[in-house]
Amino acid sequence: MSTLLLITSSPTSIHAWHALGLAQALHLKNEAFRVFFYQDGVAVANTLQWVPDDQRNLTKEWQKLEIRLPVCVSAALARGISDEENAKRHHIQHYNLAEGFELIGLGELADAVQSSERLIQF
């Protein structure tokens, strides 16, 4: 069964951590799943977020999974998150998309919804 994890919760939310936990479990079981970061969930892809040394870093935890990490480009740009290409296109001085994450359009979310058997939103 293929699962789509739609992550709309801010990285400071417990729901964002539950999404990671489910992704880790699915990954360990070699079950088919995809993720998509949307709305406030895109903030996990901001490399400029500071996390104290005594706390787990959600961004790094997602990166450790070594899976595709698609982020809604519109939601990201609206929240001050950009990759190099979009920074040039929109005349933004700096880019701050964390390594391993990629900005994509909502068309890919629509495809993922259509091709998944189960959608879970966090």
UniProtKB/TrEMBL annotation:
It is found in: Cytoplasm. Gene3D superfamilies: DsrEFH-like. Coiled coil: none annotated. Its main location: cytoplasm. It comes from the Bacteria. InterPro entries: DsrEFH-like (IPR027396), Sulphur_relay_DsrE/F-like (IPR003787), Sulphur_relay_TusD/DsrE (IPR017463). Pfam families: DsrE. This is Sulfurtransferase complex subunit TusD. The lineage of its organism: Bacteria, Pseudomonadati, Pseudomonadota, Gammaproteobacteria, Moraxellales.
